[in-house]
Input
Amino acid sequence: MDPLKAKYNYREHLQPFAVFNEDEWALFCTYMEFVSLKKKEYFIEAGKVCNHFGFINKGSVRYFHMANDGTDITGYFSFENEFMSSYKSFVKREPANNYIQALEDTELILISYKSMQEMLACEKLGHKMERFGRLIAEYYLCCYDDRITAFITQSPEERYIKLLESGRDILRRMPQHYIANFLGITPVSLSRIRRRILV
Amino acid sequence: MDPLKAKYNYREHLQPFAVFNEDEWALFCTYMEFVSLKKKEYFIEAGKVCNHFGFINKGSVRYFHMANDGTDITGYFSFENEFMSSYKSFVKREPANNYIQALEDTELILISYKSMQEMLACEKLGHKMERFGRLIAEYYLCCYDDRITAFITQSPEERYIKLLESGRDILRRMPQHYIANFLGITPVSLSRIRRRILV
DNA sequence: TGTATTTCTTATCTTAAGATAACGTTTTCT
DNA sequence: AGAAAACGTTATCTTAAGATAAGAAATACA
Output
């Protein structure tokens, strides 16, 4: 990973949430950690407290839950230039109930919880970081809202069609059995829906 | 409604999100609007932009979506001492896709979007309000996260049992056919689940 | 109080989803 | 290149959910 390019990219994708002047940016940069995950490596595992808030510079990750019988259930995906964390665990400081795993070799820029608290508390960045945190949380709140609305107002088939229409990377880059869980159904069921739609 | 008591109650329930000194509180109070809704009145209707963030001092509300065929689908409930808004619409300044309706005579303390922006921009309250907004959004993000996890990892029956165990007011105070939608199923289906569980 | 409305359950029928297994294909790994 | 693992589809069987209608019980209301 090239930290210089990664930082530049990060700064650009932070724009909607926080715009830093040079001074602030320099300070913000001192809190960054650059981490690479090999395919199948974990960013977080259930039972552990998630200590980092991440930005995906390159690659993709899968969020999943482990059922009692050992099967895993995919909850979400994130791709390059998106943020990533086991939010609830990160925010509440409690053990995560999910795993986040790299689906390909992935480059991350991380901010630790401790760093975040320091920035929130510091004179120079505090106000801006509160706003950053607010805008990020609001952004994801809206995404989650859409997701819940889809679950209560649409059938699995309708949800799949919406996903098709959305043109998101998910369909192109994710195995179908992961997408199935994401839609709240089994892989077999998704395969049947696909067949039905073809007609 | 007694605005004095309502303000006192609001301040108490804001504690986890924002603690104001007397000065700040006095200023914050100048932005409050006190509104009462009669049973079945709407706080927001689909198609309109939600201009207020509310606190329920007394009463309860139901969030619902209107399907194409005119049936309504309940998405959520909020009770006294909880916050309430059509968040996505409020945050993104776009028309709401849902309705929020009073289920009984309800007392609200509202902050308009404009007031919120003024407070966020003001010297005295800005920093604190950013934090307030962040903590509120994070709080609801966690709730939504749980809800989505339930949809992808649990069966309707399991979701109902969890709701039973949670001891939330929903079961005691809401008609069953509203709860059914909330769980992502039809009222008939919930009735069958209840019967099954009784055995 | 009496009527209307809402709410919940039950029954029937239809449709779809879950569980499981088998099979061919593709991908991964060494 | 060859073996192993992962992936997607299909078939069968079972179970549960949706749609619809009817009726009883509870509630609202005028």
About this structure: The longest strand of chain B covers residues 72-79. The mean pLDDT of chain B is 94.
